[in-house]
Specification:
heterodimer; A: mainly alpha; about 0% strand; elongated; B: about 190 residues; mainly alpha; Rna Polymerase Sigma Factor, Chain: A; Arc Repressor Mutant, subunit A; 8 helices
Amino acid sequence: MTDPHDELTPAERRAFEALPREAKPPAGLEDRTVALLRSRGVLAVPLRPVRGSPRRWQPAWLVGALAASLALFASGFAAGQYLGARSATIAAAIGLGSSLAERTQHVQRTGSEYVAALSSLIQERDTSDAAARVHATQTALDALGAAAREVARLAPDDPLAGAVLRGLTERRRATQAPAAQRAVVWY
Amino acid sequence: MTPQGAAPAVAEPERVLAEQVLAGDELAFRQLYRRYTPRLHQLVLRLVGWREADAEDAVQDTWLKATERLGSFRWESSFGTWLCAIGLNVVREQARRRSRRPEVDWPEDHDPPQAAPLERVEPLDLERAVAGLPEGYRTVLVLHDVEGFTHEEIGAALGIAAGTSKSQLFWARQAVRAALGGRQKGSLA
């Protein structure tokens, strides 16, 4: 038993129209969803929390980023080789685990994540956002520099670590970037 | 499904963002999430009868499924409409997982509530009355009277005939009117 001509009264229609069409999502749901998508490999692991302006990249930056990522990966591998000779207290302090194998795996894993994060940006070739590009470049180089310093402490004679540090020092002198723009992000 | 007045004015930005999401761009995903989740969240809240935990699960599952299917989305509808259609299916899947089959019809021997159309309705009372409907009827009423979908679209989304959607809407409205009439008389708890 239905009435095919059943219509809402004006008052009923107004009441339905007055119902809200949007509701504020629960706090933290966005981050939980992003984390889940990262764990499933849908979203790349970012260099830093993604807030504010979009990340954009230039081909010149991509070349540098690729070189930096390869250098860091090599540095990470070297660090893994030398970790066995380091004091266990340092490893414990930064949560690398108790065994050489665990610490080596940690270095390889985090190095690979860094490489993956940079590589995931290669498709973003077009940009007009110079500020974001400069910030991204500096962020990646700061991370590379920090890793190279640790490798140099572990292996003072390692030529690759020395070359990376010298290159970064020369770049810093050339660009004279303000200290505030050289914020180290994730290490 | 094309809800009245719900299509974004410009579709291209969503498409660009979607392509970036497919490439793994987190910022693009967050932009899409922030743009469309308030509407999605409100929809699923109503569909699940304001059970907030279920709504939160539904929103998250909707986005997971949306990102899985984004590559095959043909952009023949707006992104928001497509997302809400996924949300609708997620809510129905939730109901099935809870072993509470969505109610499609009133029992055969059930008489519809008898109620006259209302001349005065408070939105908050209306919201409560809708939340109190049986699940299947609530779904049809929300999709038609709140979201603006047609019976043909509802039928396609729910896998029922358009006539069934009309019938369920009639009964749902009658139940809402009965509930609100009782409340206005002070006889509804």
